Amino acid sequence: MELWKGRFAKELSPITNNFNQSIGIDKRMYKVDIEGSIAHTKMLEKQKIITKEDQKQIEKGLKEILKEIEEGKTVINSNSEDIHTFIEETLTNKIGDAGKKMHTARSRNDQVALDIRMYLKEETQDLILDLKKLIKSLIDKAKNNLYTIMPGYTHMQRAQPITFAHYLMAYVEMFLRDITRLENTYQEINVMPLGSCALAGTTYDLDREYVKEELGFDDITYNSLDGVSDRDFVIDLESNLSIVMMHLSRFSEEMVLWCSWEFKFIELDDSYSTGSSIMPQKKNPDITELIRGKTGRVYGNLIQGLTMMKSLPLAYNKDMQEDKKAIFDSIDTVKACIITLIPMIDTMTILKDNMELAAKKGFINATDCADYLSKKGMPFRDAYKLTGEIVKYAIDNDKVLDTISIEKYKEFSKLFEDDLYDEISLKTCIEKRNVIGGPAPEAVKKEIDIALKKI
């Protein structure tokens, strides 16, 4: 039965009922709805708005309903308008008239605002834990690849030598920023709106601070209009999840490239790949491709939230019922992507020889060759030009800088000596880049220690 039925003479059209109800989406909030109602009624009893006997009946009944739902003894009725209606009807059927007093000094508007905040608090904490697990997986892989040389890229062209550990730690930095953003969003969510009622508060003498403490919120809302109509925290979370997906998608794109025959830097475990229905040789990186695809879905949810709210007059409007489907979908999508990606990373094989060969063939030690000449007195621009001529010679003669003879080097410049080969070795190129944040193994070790402390 609709809680608002007293005003209406006609039954609600089945079409309207189906269009209006949200039980299929918000039923997942049953636990926080019950917890919020228990705290609300404890406050009502404390303020002598309802009797102690009624409060005890309500709390006992709500706890029984929670237990029955979780044990599968009570099934949430899909014909109910929403989870709030279902819980209240179930309670009233269980304990009688006392159940009808639960909603005193409360509106579904502030009840919904409370529930979504409580639910998103828990989900945000879970997302942070999932990101920490992903970071730990990347760090474990980085520890085993401190000396795995590979080309770093700009414009998708081989640029300068780095290590695979240095590459992985770049994504660790991204995901650490994601955690910081989620922690900030958590603070925005962690504000208690109950007591705003429909939009103008109530004439009852409520103790909102008591409810805040009971439910573990940091603060309360200070304007009842905003308390029921604010969804900034939902959109903020959607925005942050979109950025998480952007980072996951960038990583996925490189995994797709790197497990191709054109790169062959990694090989995915059979457990995290699929094949072709017609081409027996294929081993497809479907997980990472799906993450790329699902990124657009999360972006779409963010746009939906922004568009939903952009023209709403104060205070609550039914449009806002659409917030939950979008944010729940984004949360579910991000979680699924992370927990599927972690074991894929853990089990993938790093093809170190292929990475190093690509680094050598990419002439990514050319800058170090120019630096060698510059340190011996040649102006850098002249050294840069001369090194470019040497690279052209190497390409034309199917050589790399390491395999050109010293006699040939001396034809380009008398400044070249045998110590050149040590200077342009990829190992030296890496180890000398020991600045904070650089790819040298010692620098990466320090970065790993800092990251581990942060998580």
List keywords for this structure.
elongated, 455 residues, Fumarase C, Chain A, domain 2, mainly alpha
Report on this model:
- The protein is mainly alpha-helical and about 450 residues long.
- It has 19 helices and six strands.
- The radius of gyration is 31 Å and the shape is elongated.
- The longest helix is centred in the first third of the chain and has 36 residues, at about 110-145.
- It has three domains: about 5-105, Fumarase C, Chain B, domain 1 (Orthogonal Bundle), CATH 1.10.275; about 110-355, Fumarase/aspartase (Central domain) (Fumarase C, Chain A, domain 2, Up-down Bundle), CATH 1.20.200; about 360-455, Ribonucleotide Reductase Protein R1, domain 1.
- Helix 3 (about 30-45) crosses helix 8, helix 6 (about 110-145) packs antiparallel against helix 7 (about 165-190) and helix 10 runs antiparallel to helix 11.
- The strands form three sheets. It has a two-stranded antiparallel sheet with strand order 1-2. A two-stranded parallel sheet has the order 3-4.
- The two termini are about 50 Å apart.
- About 35% of the residues are buried.
- Strand 1 and strand 2 form a beta hairpin.
Main sheet specs: 2 strands, antiparallel
Query: What is the assigned CATH homologous superfamily of the largest domain?
Result: Fumarase/aspartase (Central domain)
Radius of gyration: 31 Å
Assign a percent range to the helix content.
55-70%
Shape: elongated
CATH classification class of the largest domain: Mainly Alpha
Residues in β-strands, percent? under 5%
**CATH-defined architecture of the largest domain:** Up-down Bundle
Order of strands, widest sheet? 1-2
In the predicted model, the low-confidence regions spanning at least 5 consecutive residues are: none
Order of helices and strands: HHHHHHEEHEHEHHEHHEHHHHHHH
Total number of beta strands: 6
What is the average per-residue confidence, as pLDDT, rounded to a whole number? 94
The quaternary organization reads as single chain
Helical stretch count? 19
The structure class reads mainly alpha
First-last Cα distance: 48 Å
CATH topology of the largest domain: Fumarase C, Chain A, domain 2
Provide the number of structural domains.
Answer: 3
